[in-house]
Fold:
Amino acid sequence: MRVLLVEDDTGLAEHLMRALQGDEHEVDVAHDGLSGEELALRKSYDVIVIDRMLKHKNGDLVVKDLRAAGVSTPVLFVSALAETEHRIEGLNAGANDYVGKPFDTNEVLARVKALWHGRNPDQPATRLAVGDLEMDLLGRTVHRRGRKIDLQPREFRLLEYLMRHAGRTVTRKMLLENVWEIHFDPQTNVIDVHVSRLRSKIDREFDVPMLHTVRGSGYRLEV
Amino acid sequence: MRPSLANLFQTTTFRLGVVQASVVLVFVVVLLSYVYVATIGQLLAEADRSAETEFRALERVYGAGGIRQLTEEIEQRQSRRSDLVYALTQTNGALAAGAAFDLDPPPGADPQRVEFRYRRLGEDGAVLTPRARGLQARLLGGPILVVASDLSAADRISARLTGGLVTVALFGILLAVVSGLLAARQAARRAEALARTTREVMMGDLAARAVVRGAGDEFDQLARGLNAMLSRLERLVHATRSASDAIAHDLRTPLSRQRQRLEAALKHPPDSARDRSALLAAFEENDQLLTTFQAVLRIARVETEANWTFSPVDLSALAADIFDLYSPAAEEVGLHLDAAIVPGLACWGEQTLLQQALSNLIENAFKYVPVGGRVRIAVRPHGPDDVEIEISDDGPGVPPEDRERILRRHERLDQSRATEGLGLGLSLVKAIARLHRGELKLRDGQPGGPNRPGLSAALVLPRPNKRTP
Structure:
């Protein structure tokens, strides 16, 4: 995957670049808004990771102008402005996701992948399937190997999110934001309990576990 | 800086005053001019009429009795009427009767209007030369007859009116300038008082306030507005100040600790196991620091009333979501979490902050309530205008005398307690309550046995229809 990274802090840019390269991405780095925009217009990328406060041209403006120029590449904002209203501003500027600084490197890596895979949503699906796990979105039912699994509404949404991101790591933060719509960090590790309950329902009676814990990052659903 | 005279001339009040006075002045001048024209015109018309009547009458006397009778008649009339001047010359030009004066040019046979000055003695014996106007003509056979009205009365009135007009104009101009200056000085004084207040504030005295005189005029309105603005400014500046103090306080200590630890690690010769554990400790401390920083920053943003976007928030749904989020975790730590939520209750607020407040209160209960205890989330109406959202537990509670104290920053009831806590959770909840023009109330919760009065923390928040603070 080709990633454009626009970040004016050279140390942080270097660190993120190595992390992204370690995840097998091709990375171009720009250190200010103008050269970032120029690169984004000249070459084609799969995902753009961009800071909001940049030299020469701020990130909001870069994204707005890119969108106006017809560039629809998914954009992940990485910003020290991390309050709810900043998030909303950033998304309104045309970004697809938002991570507040300081962040966990894995958080950024997971979101970059999620953005790339989520960028062409198939026809509004009525069924999701991962291995022998099947979800009927209309009938709100879940089966594994033909056996019905009863889920609470929230567990259903949690599983749906995991299935839509099957094969990729999703962080606790992503789950909090997308399943519970909570944009702050609870001190208690509330997500783990929800996931372990879900795991007990979909994995316990089967010999192959599907819901894996990724140490230090989050969870992954895969065959 | 006292307003100087030159400054006064520049003021709006002065200019307005002068403009207004000028309008009145113009009106008065127009009025007096009309009176002048009408009065003098009337007087002159009357003078012309009586001179003409007399002239015609004397013409008839001449026609009937010739120059002789006319001479007699004129002498008779002259003694009777002081308002008329007569003159009659013989054919050869010698004066036959009446007053003597030069007539130029010599008249023709048709009566012709004339105006002239003539001499006569006043009542006090002085020689006067009043104006007169009337008719003159050369009568049949050569004598010249002149009959004119004395205009001294009209001229006297005219002089008085003109004098009055000039006086009024001069006096009016003076009055306009003086009253304009007085009004301007009055206004300038009050404006200067307001300006002084703003200067005091600029010099750093945030407590300075403008004087409100209670007259209810525009200056009072301005002063009230200014004072309200200054009060808010003062509050925000204090909040910002105490926030930066708090940030310094909250971050210096752990930063220094981290620095010492790293310094100690650097003093030793390299040892990969020890270095690694030092690094790990520094890493954890760093994370803790970032969390603290985030919390302190958030409190500061809430306290300084940064631009939060408020909207109606369904508190019942919000509480139900939080309940749903925490109940598995509660079970995991051996607590019974239950909910008593009246559906459909909303408040005017900021969703994320309210979620955070509620989750802080629940996590607080998780920290202090012993295993097997109960925690309840309740949402219910509170009076006609407010909604109450309450987290109550049956834990050890907080003695009433300590409740005020634990709402302050960094206060934990039992400092020696092993529970990890930042001591910032409750102060954030309190700040959130204040931002929402609501209240955080602490009282006894559900009794849980001996020495367990429990703790109830209730947020009272205004409903959406009670929008104005």
In short: Chain A has two domains: 2-117, 127-221. The interface with chain B takes residues 82-85, 88, 102, 154, 180-190, 193-194, 197 of chain A (CB under 8 Å).
